[in-house]
Amino acid sequence: MLRERMKRWRHVFKLDPNRSLSDLALEKILTSGTDAVIIGGTDGITYRNTRELIDRVLDYAVDCVQEVTNQEAVIPGLDGYLLPVVLNTRDIQWMIGAQHQAAKKFGDWIPWEDTAALGYVVLNARSRVGRLTDSQADLTTRDVAAYAQLAEHLYGLPALYLEYSGTFGDPKMVEAVRESVSDIQLIYGGGISRGDEAKEMARWADTTVVGNLVYRNVDAALGTVSAIKEEIEEQVR
Ligand SMILES: CC(C)=CCC/C(C)=C/CC/C(C)=C/CC/C(C)=C/CC/C(C)=C/CC/C(C)=C/CC/C(C)=C/COP(=O)(O)OP(=O)(O)O
Ligand SMILES: O=P(O)(O)OC[C@@H](O)CO
Ligand SMILES: [Mg+2]
């Protein structure tokens, strides 16, 4: 079941079908020791570019799931599907509308056991996802903690995603959210460009996601895997 597998992810790379990556860079990423690869992005996601990237990733043993942001680009037969639900959007389309349209079309074929919702709180209003979803991102730690508690206790979501896409977030925010919830899987993503930054967020987050760095500096991206392993060792000591 996807929810059980996801809980074990500490480090994840997010790969964007709309960006190109050499075979060598992809091989380095997929053999890095990361726990999983999420395939997804905000813009320019098509069936064709998603299929092409997934076919290259499936040659490796790493856990590979699709984060669905375009219902026309779903690739059947994968190990898992993540469906974003944006909690702080001002536009209902990104909270329930797009998901409803897709469920109307695919509902009887969706492998629900291997499908999980990600409750997003988008904290960088200027990011692509912030602009697309018109998210209200000027939030206090109490605001975000309140979303986290609703996600966990009222909506029963498996995971809460603190999304700073493109900018390094506030570790104090991640700490405050960590302290406000108990079982929900806390995912951090955004602006990680060095191992120490990954380590800092992994202190509070269950799962830390590295995205754009893969395309900017693949060797620095690999360094985030070992940094998170160090953090895990320190936590068990
Ligand atoms: C056999 C068969 C047919 C199987 C199908 C199974 C299946 C799972 C079907 C899907 C059903 C379904 C309900 C789909 C949902 C469709 C949908 C369109 C939902 C809306 C998703 C949503 C809220 C999108 C908004 C944007 C968002 C939250 C994106 C998340 C990812 C993200 C933030 C990526 C980062 O973006 P990026 O562009 O890389 O950012 P940079 O600028 O930093 O690069
Ligand atoms: O691309 P970056 O800024 O690393 O963000 C990763 C991920 O949270 C994007 O959804
Ligand atoms: Mg990206």
UniProtKB/TrEMBL annotation:
Record Gene3D superfamilies: FMN-linked oxidoreductases
Pathway: Membrane lipid metabolism; glycerophospholipid metabolism
Top-level taxon of the source organism: Bacteria
Enzyme Commission code(s) on record: 2.5.1.n9
Pfam family, one: PcrB
Reactions performed catalytically: sn-glycerol 1-phosphate + all-trans-heptaprenyl diphosphate = 3-heptaprenyl-sn-glycero-1-phosphate + diphosphate
Cofactors demanded by this protein: Mg(2+)
Main enzyme class: transferase
Binding site for sn-glycerol 1-phosphate: 14, 161-166, 191, 211-212
Protein keywords: Lipid biosynthesis, Lipid metabolism, Magnesium, Metal-binding, Phospholipid biosynthesis, Phospholipid metabolism, Transferase
Oligomer and partners: Homodimer.
Function: Prenyltransferase that catalyzes in vivo the transfer of the heptaprenyl moiety of heptaprenyl pyrophosphate (HepPP; 35 carbon atoms) to the C3 hydroxyl of sn-glycerol-1-phosphate (G1P), producing heptaprenylglyceryl phosphate (HepGP). This reaction is an ether-bond-formation step in the biosynthesis of archaea-type G1P-based membrane lipids found in Bacillales.
Family membership: Belongs to the GGGP/HepGP synthase family. Group I subfamily.
PANTHER family the UniProt entry points to: HEPTAPRENYLGLYCERYL PHOSPHATE SYNTHASE, PTHR40029
Name of the molecule in the record: Heptaprenylglyceryl phosphate synthase
Species of the source: Marininema mesophilum
Gene field: pcrB
